[in-house]
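User: Hey, my collaborator sent me this sequence without any context and asked if I could get a structure. I don't really work with proteins. Can you help?
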Amino acid sequence: MAGLKVVELAHERIAYAGKLFADLGADVVLVEPPGGDPSRNYPPFLDDQPGPGRSLWAWHYHTSKRSIELDLEEPAGRDAFAKLVAGADIVFETEQPDADGTTRLSRLGLDYEDIGAANTKLIWVSMTPYGRRAPRMADPATDLTLLAGSGIAWSCGYDDHSLPPVRGGGNQGYHTGCHYAVMGAMTALLYRHVSGEGQYIDVNMNAAGNVTTEAGSYTWLVAQQTVQRQTGRHAGVNPSMPSQVACLDGKIVNTGLPPRRPDDFRRMLGWLSDLGLTDEFALSPVLEMGAARERIDLSLIQTDPETAAIFGAGRECVNFIASRIPAYDFFSGAQARGFQVGIIYSPEEVFGDPHFIARGFPTEVEHPELGRSYTYPGAPYQFRASPWGISRRAPMIGEHSAEILAELS
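Assistant: No problem. I've predicted the 3D structure and written it out in structure-token form, which is a compact way to encode the shape of the chain:
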């Protein structure tokens, strides 16, 4: 993304979209109000001590960006913002309309129709909870209400449905919208490369969440059936077998997909043998039945008792092995044999996993003002031709104001 100029109008909802572009090399200018964006005061804080430049939330979301402090209520601030937009490739903003359809930007004469359309190559991305033109456009929203209202939260929780649904952590409602904003902007860049023209993109965060409900939405639309949440498993109309098991060391794993093909059952039997547990597992003979078959037709599980017994024995065997060995041994042993399983890590445990370390996921970022570096979450992807990298720590409030204003003059 080197050479691309991106203007991000600061807000917690859109911060991740700007980060994704900035860490791929784009020059992302974070436009903040006087005193900085409110999210700079979000916990957690460095050493649990609030203060300027100590919000770890802001550290994460604003890597590789430059910050300019502008008062858009003043003529000088509006003029500088208009100049930034005039020279930009992309604008990211999340200004939610009022009931009459106007936004703060439109009232200030700074919306796409006012200043953006004059830059014919500009890609302007508006990401709002319900879209810029819709009956619910002015409804208030948070990450929680977006996850609930779009249907995502319905599928998150436990087998015990007396418990309410669970909100996924980490701003997933905002992140889902940001991913669609980024994909939309990248698609628009490809279109501009061919046509030479920019365009306006209206991202509806509620709709982005609704098409990210896996089978939830489509099960209803096609069959008028409602999926039910399950502990650590895909939500489904009919319950599936539990898959979370405590290992010998007390750590929890998700045992994933059980054996489904004859070769899977042969490998499972081999694993039991390697561990010396064949005789201890009472259903070993049923596994042998699965291994001896030419084909296992899973569509017969509900009607053929033998097929159901074989499939169930496979699941029971995975859970049995998990309960007899440490979690990492189970994880690595299953992966080596082609079974999809995973350890349930705490966030900090991820950084010690050998796989993540080998991929370079833990990334050191220098903080010169503090005289040391800190470990950050690294690349969610690896591109050979356009490598990812955090170029600098998050800027202080208005750290680059003078520099950016000089570029505009």
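In plain terms: The chain has a mean pLDDT of 95. You can pass these tokens on to your collaborator as they are.
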